[in-house]
Amino acid sequence: MGNSKTFSRRGLVQGVGAAAGTGLIGAAGIEGALSQTRGGKPRVLALVGDRYHNPDYIRTSLDPVFKDLDVGIDYTIAYDQISAEMLRNYQVFLTFRDGMIWPGGYLGPDASSYYASNLEDPKTFPDPVSQPCLTDAQGAAIRDFVQAGGGLYAMHNSSYISLFVKPYRDVMGGVSKAHPPLRPFRVQATQNRHPITEGVKPFMVNDEQHYVQYDLDPAHIILESENIDGLTFKDMGSKSVSGWAHDYGKGRVVFTAVGHNIHALWNPQYLEIQKRSVRWLLRQI
Question: pLDDT by residue (tens digit) across 60-91?
């Protein structure tokens, strides 16, 4: 990004894509986002990236969605900066990150055990200790944002935030229980009719099949996943909830579980679901 500007430690790199108005921001970039919101177009703030999910693939995957919608999106990895003040400049908050951080560090970029094998002096590396990425106060800010009329689009592993932050779970509506490694499975609309899934055909992905619990009315469940080869996981069978959409106060919430790789995120049927999800949150459909 040749025209990037580096801000203080609390800021990130801010840039604007010519077509979609996409950028990467921290607290220092809010004013630029606010000026574009005042221009009349809706704007989305996306909290992305964690130990297991590189923010680069997420941004690469989502940019075409928002370009086609002509909706601006700002990305941030700064989980500690999420606040009511930051959210007030946006119409939709998108979460696409795990619920944990490791302030004391960790050996490798993922949970593969071989990163910890054959070290010269393994005792110099402490065991990784996780803690929640968001506080209850931040979860309450997200809840209040939606309650007041904003939209929340929770994607893929962001339902794990619900394990640690009750106000987030209250508004998001559920939690991921576990998932097997990558394997093919089918995703299809449920019998609950909804503008997001109307006419969408079943589709196959090679992805993490998240087994998800929805806490609210089952009438709001719009997607389900099934391993059509009959493979089960633990004691949870071969099927799971894979998406829902509900109203919350004056706002709206959507969750879709697919998303561990670009191959899955760019499935044509799933791309359509993502676009419709954003449009539904913005009350355009």
Answer: 999 999 999 999 999 999 999 999 999 999 99
* CATH label of the domain that carries residue 258: 3.40.50.880
Domain range holding 162? 22-101+128-178+245-281
Report the SS3 class of residue 178. strand
Q: What angle do CA 239, 242, 245 make, to 5 degrees?
A: 140
Residue numbers of the chain with a pLDDT score lower than 70: 1-39, 108-117, 119, 122-123, 125
Does this model's pTM top 0.90?
Answer: no
Q: What's the CA gap between 277 and 283, in Å, rounded?
A: 10
Would 275 be classed as within a structural domain?
yes
Q: What is the pLDDT of residues 150-179, one digit of tens each?
A: 999 999 999 999 999 999 999 999 999 888
Terminus-to-terminus CA distance in the chain, angstroms?
A: 35
Question: 230 — alpha (psi -120 to 50), left (phi > 0) or beta?
Answer: left
- How many domains, in total, are found in the chain? 1
Residue 189, domain member (yes or no): no
